[in-house]
Specification:
mainly alpha; about 0% strand; globular
């Protein structure tokens, strides 16, 4: 079996994706884009069970998957998805002193994710089986 392209081209694909996040969020640096992406992914993850988080991670490109899963406490119970203003507050509270994410970061990252190497059919299929609020979270 050949090496999957998602691993072979992981650095190249992630570099293009993080540039897209940076530009879509109108941020200045890759570092700001990384922390914004991380905040959005971790906010989403906090509302998923272990099983649902792993289902979602399976459709992510390799580096984005690693960021989604990093520093996770899978024993922490997930909270139901709140409304968008609360999600924005949660996202902005991740590394609060270093978080420069705009209020539109969730939508911006969703748009960039859909434009990246993620298969949108897989995304829609997985979102359909996740808890209520998951599909709304990833609307671009």
């Amino acid at each position: 079996m050949p090496m999957p392209q998602t691993y072979f081209h992981a650095s190249r694909d992630f570099d293009a994706f993080i540039k897209d996040v940076r530009d879509t969020c109108m941020l200045q640096t890759h570092h700001q884009a990384y922390h914004t992406l991380r905040a959005v992914l971790h906010t989403f993850r906090s509302h998923l069970t272990v099983r649902d988080a792993l289902r979602f991670s399976d459709i992510l490109p390799a580096v984005t998957r690693a960021i989604f899963l990093e520093n996770w406490d899978p024993l922490e119970p997930p909270a139901p998805f709140p409304d968008r203003p609360v999600l924005i507050m949660e996202m902005k509270s991740v590394r609060q002193d270093h978080n420069l994410a705009p209020d539109s970061a969730i939508e911006d990252v969703a748009a960039a994710l859909r434009r990246s190497s993620i298969d949108t059919k897989d995304l829609e299929r997985v979102l359909a089986i996740l808890p209520e609020g998951a599909t709304e979270f990833w609307k671009a």
